[in-house]
Structures are given as structure tokens and as C-alpha cells.
Amino acid sequence: MNCESFDVLVVGAGAAGITAALQAARAGAAVCLVEKNGIPGGTMTVSGIHYPGIFNAWGRQVIAGIGWELVAKTLETMGRPMPDFSRTDMTRHWEHQIPLDPVIFAAIVDRELLAAGVTIKYHTMLGALSGEESGWAVTLCGRDGLYEVKSKVVADCSGDANAAKLAGYEVRTSEPCQPGTMSVYATGYHLKSLDLDAIGNAFQEAVRKGEVCAEDTGWAGGFNPNVLIKRGNNSNHISGINACDSAGRTKIEIAGRES
Length: 259
Hints:
FAD/NAD(P)-binding domain; six-stranded mixed beta sheet; 2 domains; 7 helices
């Protein structure tokens, strides 16, 4: 079997990897994009946090580029208007995030990657990296096993420096790490029928008894009614676990489901 060869191999198809792959391919490079999941978008699609931001500051847009291009095309396909960044009634930064349909976003990303000539390898993980005179020998793991490709440049967009570690470089990890969130959506109740004060008091009593974690409903360490008002969403807080490797990721996802 002939070994595939590329100018640039991008590891990870989240926001950074999508942008890197499109920029390189549009500049004329032969690009391969490797992604462990079967869909691009990373946190925006796989994790359900489908509202990227922030593209503005102090009443005007300050960030554009490929990321904004993809957001604009998604909004157009959804039939949604472009955001008005000059609005002064939204004082909290998160109010300026832009909700996207994750499936439409992913489909648009697929289309743009293919149009740019990117070789897409979903359901594929990085297995090993070794330096050569002409670049890198890259071992990939697909559903059909291990195989090797060559690339002059490897761009690590994994989010956890996975490629850098496999290449033998020193990686510095901050302690403590930012807590993670198991994004969930709650159904089966009528919000107006709930006594949020009583639920909050019951939650605090359950925390005192050790039945739940204080961060199970929000970032503040106490009961956060938004977990019910917004029907779950990006609410809970999983602390104290570094999820940069498979062992840590296993631990934090089990803790997230328990939460």
C-alpha cells in the first residue's frame, strides 16, 4: 500500500483544527485533518455547547476570519439574522454568544473542507509521531487498524497537546485545571409549577448530607436555579480531574454522569 503524504496534518477538528485545515488548504497546501469523532466542531457539536463567541468588544466586531465565515454561513442557512454587536442592553459577555444549529454547522464545515481539498479522516486517532529529515512519520489508528502517513508539518489542535506529547516535547499542565461540564438537557416538568426556593433549600441539605456535590447545579458552588430555568444546559461543574489523557477523560465523564 502506498503511504499517503501531506504538507500539513492537523490533529483535531474542533474550532482550531477546522480553521487551521481550511487556511492551509486554501493557501495551496496538501492537508489531512484527523478527528477521533465522526463530526467536526469539537465542543460546539460533540459536547453540545453550540454557541461560539466572542466576536465583539465594546460595541463593535473585532474578530472575523474563517471562524466568522462559518458562523455567518450557518446563520444564513438557518434563516437567522446576523447579530447586532452595537446593542448596549446586553452587558454580560455570554449574552453575545451566537447559538448555532450544530448539525447544520457541521455540514457546512464538511462542505468547506472538501471544497478546499482537505483529506478528512474522521473516526481516526493519532497513534505515534516520529521526526524525519523531511518532516514526520505519523501513525494513525482507524477502525481498520494502524497505518502510517507522512507529513511535512503537524499542527496540534487536539486541545490537550496530544501530538506534542507523542512527539516527545515537554508539555506543561496547569494545576488546577479549569473544571469541566457535563452538558445535559432536562425535561419532564413545568417550570411555573416548581418552588425554586424549596428545591434550593433541599439541595443545600443534600449537600450537607453528602448526597450531592455543591457544584452539581452550577459554577457558584451552591444551588443554581438556572439548571431548571434553562433546563440543564451548560450548568454543572466537575472539579479536580485533569482530562488531558484517556484515563482522566474516563474519570471525568463518569463523574459528570454521576453529577
